[in-house]
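Hello forum,

I keep getting stuck at the same step: I have a sequence, I want structure tokens, and every attempt I make locally crashes halfway through. Rather than fight my setup again tonight, could one of you with a working pipeline run this one for me? It's a single chain of 455 residues.
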Amino acid sequence: MTQAQPQRTTSDLVKAAVSGWLGTALEFMDFQLYSLGAALVFHEIFFPEQSAAMALILAMGTYGAGYIARIVGAFIFGRMGDSIGRKKVLFITITMMGICTTLIGVLPTYAQIGIFAPVLLVTLRIIQGLGAGAEISGAGTMLAEYAPKGKRGIISSLVAMGTNCGTLSATAIWAVMFFALDREELIAWGWRVPFLASVVVMIFAIWLRMNLKESPVFEKVNDAQSVQPDTSLGSMVKNKSFWLATGLRFGQAGNSGLIQTFLAGYLVQTLLFDKAIPTDALMISSILGFISIPLLGWLSDKVGRRLPYIILNISAILLAYPMLSIIVDKSYAPGTIMLSIIVIHNFAVLGLFALENITMAEMFGSRNRFTRMAISKEAGGLVAVGFGPVLAGIFCNMTGSWWPIVAMLVAYSAIGLVSAILMPEVRDRDLSAAHDAAESAPEESVGYGAVSSRR
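Reply #2:
Ran it on my machine without issues. Output:
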């Protein structure tokens, strides 16, 4: 029986693009609001009885708790996304994230209820992490499956632009708080404002997703019913594409955790820099990302995904020491320090993320894409971002030096580089194909080819 090819208009593509961008913006706004809060003020609000170094480590630990939950959420919601559809799952995840972020803004402090304050904070972080574990992978999957060949890189870069917008918004809000309020006002009530403000983005994002059509690739493959999703962990850990994708994610996510989360706290709490230096630098870097991210997405449509990945990781390795040596040295002008943060952030974080979503979406087969992409992302994120800032805090405290930051940046980038070298080129791969890119297509999987040829 001939199956009708799912049709999507330009308007549908625009809605999918805006939905992916906005949902990812909310996710990264949520997490950047928290990461900067953890680095800059939460040690006083939720862990006031600890030393400065230990309070920073505990605050980073609550940040990491969300990343442990993310991998659980990736497995639960990723499987749902491959079974019941991308749209329904994306509606659930964005609602969970938005509500939890808003509730953080109304939490009582340690001074009000004691130990229950950090317990409630960790609880909300865990629930928020469950939703976030599938949000960006779902958005990346949806947008990749909507985008036409030859333009997937630049269109999917909108997901990365969402992370940029979220980081920019959160950093800008915190910068305004530090500018407008004195220390006492910030600790008393000002820290709540950024979290409460996120409700505006959440409401619009939920409304948009209620009016979004399902992915055309999912509908086409689901209607064919030729192969059922294989979402078992056993098959996943034996899968070469899974490990390559995890390595790519590990490199980018590790650098992100070090630069956007730990470095800000280290500069302020340990080296006693002005708080405006890391927050303003990240804000400016995010603005520049509006140029660098789509440029890299467009470039990957022209030259493929592997080459830009390889160049960016090599650049991050070469820049790690010279940039960090400037960033931690107070003898340099604030503008020079901020420029160094901007450079390493764009090469080691934003540039890699511009390529990540479309590359990982193209690496996996149609019936397992959501699950495997989500778990590979969160497995890399759990180790690199969840534990990375905590380990960096411990190592820097033990050594009394900033050298561990350089060593970790180089290690993360080296893992990303090796993964990029070993991965197959996946540009414009058939997203209806059942098999993963690094595995040979089984001869019996002709059902997907048949689906692709139906008109």
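Confidence is low (pLDDT under 50) at residues 444-455. If your local run keeps crashing, start a new thread with the error log.
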